[in-house]
Design a protein that fits this description.
By secondary structure, the protein is an all-alpha fold. It has twelve helices and no strands.
Amino acid sequence: MTMDYGMSELVPIVGKLAEKYTGHEHTSISYEKAEQLMEAVLYCICETEKENTEFAVQGEKLDAERIYLLGKHLVEEKVKKSLELYNHISAEFCDYGNFCLQNIFLKDLPYFFEHYNYQFAPQDTMIIINYSTWNDVSSDKGIDKIWNFLQSVLLEQKFLQAFPKQEIYRVLIKYDIANEGEAENLCEIILRTIMMNIFLGKYPLDSEFTKEDCIRLQELFKGMREDEIEKQFQKIVQKLVENYYGGDEKLQDYLCIGLRDMAVRTKNAVQNETLIGYLKIDCTLW
């Protein structure tokens, strides 16, 4: 179903919203504020369309105000669910020294939940999420962005918490993850390490690759296409999820999102003979 409402249907809704904003006083609002309120109305209408609830019957164009009010209710409920999810993650949350993730989770998200206005500005995200997850949220706005980001963090925390913290830190210490401008995904680093170790027949989180390891990986991947590497990665993820996470399909689907890019980067490192840099191999140990 496509929500296609004209200005004649939307302006009255914005007018009522403006009355609430001004406290039902007969005062005018600025053009910029009117635009913001129109965006708020459209955001809520789109929320109804995305959720495809029983009230949005396919093929039937329902009253715009009814759709808006339903969307506003959905936004309010998503705020509650997001806060519950945030609190759930917070119980065992670990940023593993990543400044971006730490800042977003411990400072920015509390600010969002305190100041987010689902009634007059549900489209505003207010915070910058510069920690990249495999579930891309760059085009999302408002509570949708926060909800989708938190779902990704939930899965990433589950993935990382299956291994002892000291082993995770031992791998990550080779990467400059504490840099304020560094937003590299933690799961990508750890999963990449696991992949290579499994190919080598080593313990998944062995943090040190040798010269011999580099040569073996170079030979192993040299004759493989990117799609073949990706398929091998998929098999490893499937086995990993079965052995460590009870076959969690959501986690498996999430981890698989990043495998295409990982396969491309691995192939490029092999072709350019830059596996040493790609895997942060310490040549002083050779």
